[in-house]
Specification:
The protein is an alpha+beta fold. The protein is 27% helix and 42% strand. The protein contains two helices and 18 strands. It has helices spanning 2-42, 44-68; strands spanning 76-78, 83-84, 88-94, 100-105, 108-114, 120-127, 131-141, 145-146, 153-157, 165-168, 173-176, 180-186, 192-195, 198-199, 201-202, 207-213, 217-226, 232-241. The strands form four sheets. Strands 2, 4, 5, 7, 8 and 9 form a six-stranded mixed beta sheet that branches. Helix 1 crosses helix 2 (44-68). It starts with a helix and ends with a strand. 14% of the residues are buried.
Length: 243
């Protein structure tokens, strides 16, 4: 029984292959007849002339491409940071020497600058929108045309101080009877938190905790939260350790 199905499957495959061969044969036959009719109607010299014209057109196109040259390579924007609290900044980058670079922010052109002999370009006084600013650039020359768009880079403009909510202590002054004290609070995810200059551990949700060793008497505790843009929030509390 299995041999029967195998034989039947092979026969279907062979029929399909025969159909493909037949289609190709018919196409070649029709094409040959068409060429023959064109030769009879228009004559062989006309076909030869047409072939020469097509060949010259292809040759001319290749020559134009060769004379025009390759377009410049895409420029590269160099960002020293990913976030800032400044409303404007200076953007620099690298590209092929002596080309012109156009800078775009969120797909809107911000102007053009020439690349110096060392292959660097600078855009000064670029104003930023609050939140995400995505920059791209394109290089161009009058002869070779435009390059492909550069790899996009993003910078965040944040001008607001990060939040700081204290859980322990929740008040500005308190008295305790133990030397070990857990400073606990919450800020924004990705923030840097220090307690009296010591780095606290911050979880993915912005929660932080630091175990502080108190001295007998009054202890001034400074908590500083700083975000990626450099904005910071400070809070000072007084904890008295009374034995």
């Amino acid at each position: 029984m299995s041999e029967f199905f195998k034989s039947k499957s092979r026969s279907r495959l062979e029929r399909k292959e025969d159909e493909e061969i037949t289609k190709k044969t018919i196409f070649l036959g029709v094409f040959t007849v068409l060429i023959f009719i064109l030769v009879i109607v228009f004559g062989l010299p006309l076909l030869v002339k047409l072939s020469i014209i097509l060949g010259e057109a292809r040759s001319k196109n290749k020559t134009e491409i060769s004379e025009k040259g390759l377009p410049p390579l895409p420029p590269r924007i160099v960002l020293p940071f990913e976030a800032t609290n400044s409303a404007s900044l200076v953007l620099t980058g690298v590209a092929e020497p002596k080309v012109t670079v156009e800078l775009l922010r969120n797909d809107v052109s911000l102007g053009k600058e020439s690349v110096d002999d060392k292959g660097t370009f600078t855009f000064k006084g670029i104003s930023l929108d609050k939140g995400e600013n995505i920059f791209t650039a394109v290089a161009s020359t009058e002869k070779e045309g435009n390059s492909e768009l550069s790899k996009p880079v993003m910078i965040l403009y944040i001008d607001e101080a990060p939040e700081l909510v204290m859980t322990n202590p929740s008040e500005d002054k308190l008295t305790v009877d133990v030397a070990d004290f857990d400073v606990v609070g919450k800020s924004q995810a990705g923030s840097r938190v220090t307690v009296n200059g010591h780095l606290a551990m911050v979880d993915d949700e912005g929660g932080f905790k630091y175990k502080l060793q108190l001295n007998v008497g009054k202890n001034s505790v400074e908590i500083i939260v700083k975000d990626s843009a450099g904005n910071e929030t400070k809070k000072t509390v007084e904890i008295t350790y009374d034995i």
